Fold these 2 entries.
Entry 1:
Amino acid sequence: MEMLKTWADCAADLIAVAAGRKPADLVLRNARLVNVQSREVLDGWDVAVACGRFAYVGPDAEHTIGRDTQVVDLEEQYLIPGLCDGHMHIESGMLTPAEFARAVIPHGTTTMFTDPHEIANVFGLRGVKLMHDEAMLQPVNIYTQMPSCAPSAPGLETTGFEIGPEDVAEAMTWPGIIGLGEMMNFPGVVAGDDMLLAEMAATARAGKVIGGHYASPDLGPDFHAYAAGGPADDHEGVAEDDAIARVRQGMRSMLRLGSAWYDVEKQITAVTERGLDPRNFILCTDDCHSGTLVNEGHMNRVLRHAIECGCDPLIALQMATINTATHFGLERELGSIAPGRRADMIVTSDLRSLPIETVYARGQKVAENGICLVDCPHLDWPADTRASVHLGKEITAADFEIAAPDGANQVKAKVIGVVENQAPTQALTADLPVHDGIVEGQGPVCQIALVERHKGTGGVVNGFVSGFDYKGQMAIASTVAHDSHHMIVVGTDRENMAKAVMRLAEIGGGVSVFKDGAELALVELPIAGLMSDDLASRVADKAQNMVEAMAACGCTLNNAYMQHSLLALPVIPELRISDLGLVDVTRFELTELFEKDSL
């Protein structure tokens, strides 16, 4: 596709087309046009496109049609704006920006606001630049938010690289940077941390948006202090009160439906039942893995879900288009079908079930009937980005032995409790047996370990987790471990845990499932141990094999892999694991594995 011209470069042409002095490149006629500016459906309207932008939007575009104008009769199908994802991480799809774009274009996503803080933890500012540069090559709009928190919780984890104010200031000069990524270290903001304030100040000086992440149920003074710090949005709400509190503080409430985060239904009642102004609500995905993208959809999936939850289709569309564009200061550029905007649009026959029949981006047909019709260019990723797993030694079963206190035949251990379809965990305890001086998992409680993979220290931190319901002798290891992205392994058997870890060291990263000493599934993620540049369909097939392998090991959770990948994120309560130890996220401090009364 040709490079999109700015409005200033083509304003004269747009005016000439709208006035009838110059023919349009493309005219779509007889549409049921959904106007998200006025929240109405306009029957029988036409749109004329020139220079990849809307020139004329009105009841009759006959005067814009010339000999070479492409004319399409929509036969009273709906024409809606291309969908916008207000907050997401491309790496969670296990795909590079190019392959992610190829996967979501057929679903009608034409704009994404992405935070590549996953690769920032592995390769720092250089990794962010690589993601930014590949994003800029795509035929749809991929804006990059400069990651703010690498590490997400200083003092509680160690990353491959760190991000500081000077990195943020540099990134703000790049053409595709739209703002600062989610400010996850909310205790640091509340405490007035100088480095975080400097990052937010650099963003504010650049006139860009500061992303929020307040993962706490406390809506008291700390929440108000966080809002005063500058974050303009937040996607961590899980209840109606969370959504209301955010918009009352002048923040946009981002309602997410990812592969494993189902937070729309409980919050959208702020609009559907409480009657709050919907223009301050935005739909997003946050994290979607490749299987969801290929088999279920992307923003179209979120939109359908919001409608099923009782939201008026036109209001839900606003939450996935114009609201998002306005929030990022791009209302004059995208998010609606109006003169001057990028000609991003979807043809659909129904506003509730939302089949995505045809997708246009920048005036070009990019997908039809589920098939991507355009090239999504790749970067030539440097060789070292495919060699990011450094263990420093061979990991063996002995590395996962958890020594009991002297003389104990039973201990009371702290256990990370997984909650289905939610990012937060529970801080649980369990009485566990001791055999030959080693503490063993029992029943629903199995082992979890974090294996350092950036510096080659050979470090292994052990703990316990429940909620997966694994049975038999098994293990699952992954180099996707938000946000520090060391290697995280969960298992019922230490030999299988060691095998899974060493398999990922061998291939350079990914996900491996072992049972009874044999590998059941493997997803290769060679780029930073996070992404594959293979086709999304092939990655999705491997991811589906992984899900089936987890089920074969006894797991019944919905999208349990997403919970697995977040068990090392020490900014979401209540209990997590890091390379420094077990983390009590309610107190933001390291904590001992065993309760004191068990010692």
Note: The mean pLDDT is 96.
Entry 2:
Amino acid sequence: MNFFDRLQQETASERDELYRVPQIVDGMQGRITRETYIAYLTQAYHHVKHTLPLLMAAGSRIPPEKEWLRRSFAEYIEEEIGHEEWILNDIRLAGGDAEATRQSVPSLPVELMTSYAYDLVMRRNPVGFFGMVFVLEGTSTALATHAAEAIQKSLNLKKDCFSYLLSHGALDVSHMQFFERTVNKITNSTDQQDIIHSARVIYHLFAEMFRSIPHERTKEAA
């Protein structure tokens, strides 16, 4: 079994837990309000704005004997520039207050998720950050396009309000293909275990982030 398949297998229960969160289940069916969608984007902004600094920090801490991995981080850095601004623009176009989002504080799960990621990169093992990449990229590829289309239809919002979700959805499978090729080259057992462990932690905290988003089920979904 290659490492990517092992990573999927050993994080299956945490992934299933995430996919059962009511906010995600209802979002996939377009059964959320505009306020819930904007609340989701707000929390997404608060973790996405840390992606670039985390990638830069992780890349800078890769030891010389793993130089090839630094190049992988560099490719991710190039891809992730400016994504937090896409989210703010989606909020603005959906009728939310983008500037208030910029000045707001994250929910506790997002605070813990980003703090955990910084601690992992700065104190423990920067290679372990691939666990967070796996969760965020994999979840987006699996769910984002479907959710965006369902929410757009139910809320009658313009496609411009979904640039973040659509750019990270099923059409962007190249990211996961690149990720799979990269982690399959990681053979150090400690690195592999740190990636698996961090993915489990991030899955749990990501699920808690969604649970923290204010959401009342519609009559149709109840």
Note: Residues 130-155 form the longest helix (26 residues).
